[in-house]
């Protein structure tokens, strides 16, 4: 078939893992970066020269911008959230321009599919490259990078900004609403990769794909994007006087469901150190965070009942939410302390609400119910 895999293994030299990745609201593994290829030579005689040159130019733009984005991610202190948002938007546009041209190489019956050797490297370990002479591998890599860029955009949108109005830096409602669409877009790219692209790659080559492109990892990242999107929706619902407790509980339970599924997909895939370990800790943190929110809103709904039993169940749910919140704080500290280290911006949305409300409501409900039923007896 003319396709194969080549890898240059780590020879023991220093890895390019940064000491810190700066402020993190949305965590993602290291970016995969494409290496330059010569389309004109590889596709000579099979594709019009002007088309090959246009394809080369679009990919060269992607290579250049992806390298810049990767280098900037390794030096997070040198850029602002506004600059990151601009650069990721430009990279995403370059990828969106390149993808339709690339799909011409994988048309049914195309003889060009295996003519080009596509090479990609992981940001974490620049010496570890994966090369395949299969255009579907390139499509898969492009979709994965598009999703990662969306997650970078979301992280940028969710960092506090100063608006020059005399108030402290904050995450605006507009930014939180915008990230819901960005998270959905990221999940959509990954779902397309899983459903439409992976089945096109022969099983023997699929087994040799880098861990970033393994099906379980793609699923986990897609679900992570959905989970964080629901987190933003819950935060907006909390701020809305029209949203009922039932709506808030439903959103919190959706978060639990998504993070549970992420947790199930990741453990067997990721290495026990570096980015892999940090990613697992991020998932654990968000999973228990979601549980804290779900138990909290469930407890408030139970407390609306009129019986001693419902009030007792409400107290138990609120106490469980408090324990999950304590576990969440420990998980957050472990995540941020794990290399590459990171910082947690000022809490907002759901996180700020449960940090403020759970300890107060859990203790007050326990005291009120104890006083109420002690007096009755």
Automatic annotation (TrEMBL):
InterPro entries, per the entry: BRO1_dom, BROX
Residue ranges constituting the BRO1 domain according to the UniProt record: 25-377
CDD domains membership: BRO1_Alix_like
Region called Disordered, residue ranges: 330-350
UniProt signal peptide: none
Name of the molecule in the record: BRO1 domain-containing protein
């Amino acid at each position: 078939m003319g396709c194969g895999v080549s890898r240059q293994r780590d020879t023991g030299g220093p890895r390019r893992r940064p000491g810190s990745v700066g402020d993190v609201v949305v965590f993602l593994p290291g970016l995969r970066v494409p290496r330059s290829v010569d389309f004109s030579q590889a596709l000579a005689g099979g594709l019009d020269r002007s088309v090959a040159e246009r394809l080369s130019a679009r990919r060269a733009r992607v290579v250049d911008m992806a390298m810049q984005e990767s280098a900037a991610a390794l030096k997070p202190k040198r850029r602002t959230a506004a600059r990151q948002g601009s650069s990721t938007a430009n990279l995403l546009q370059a990828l969106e321009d390149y993808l339709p041209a690339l799909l011409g190489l994988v048309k049914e019956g195309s003889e060009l599919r295996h003519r080009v050797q596509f090479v990609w490297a992981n940001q974490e370990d620049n010496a570890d490259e994966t090369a395949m002479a299969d255009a579907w591998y390139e499509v898969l890599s492009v979709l994965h990078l598009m999703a990662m860029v969306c997650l970078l955009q979301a992280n940028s949108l969710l960092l506090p900004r100063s608006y020059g109005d005399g108030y402290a830096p904050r995450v605006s409602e507009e930014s939180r609403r915008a990230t819901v669409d960005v998270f959905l877009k990221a999940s959509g790219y990954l779902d397309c990769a899983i459903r439409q692209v992976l089945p096109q790659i022969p099983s023997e080559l699929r087994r040799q794909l880098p861990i970033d492109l393994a099906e379980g990892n793609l699923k986990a990242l897609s679900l992570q994007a959905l989970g964080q999107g629901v987190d933003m929706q819950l935060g907006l619902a909390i701020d809305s006087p029209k949203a009922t407790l039932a709506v808030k509980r439903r959103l919190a339970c959706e978060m639990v469901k998504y993070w549970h599924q992420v947790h199930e997909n990741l453990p067997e895939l990721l290495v026990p150190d570096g980015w892999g370990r940090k990613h697992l800790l991020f998932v654990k943190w968000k999973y228990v965070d979601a549980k804290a929110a779900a138990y909290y809103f469930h407890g408030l709904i139970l407390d609306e009942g009129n019986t001693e039993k419902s009030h007792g169940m409400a107290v138990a749910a609120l106490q469980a939410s408090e324990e999950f919140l304590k576990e969440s704080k420990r998980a957050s500290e472990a995540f941020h302390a794990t290399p590459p280290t990171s910082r947690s911006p000022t809490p907002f949305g759901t996180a700020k609400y449960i940090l403020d409300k759970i300890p107060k409501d859990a203790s007050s409900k326990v005291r009120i119910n104890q006083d109420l039923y002690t007096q009755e007896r």
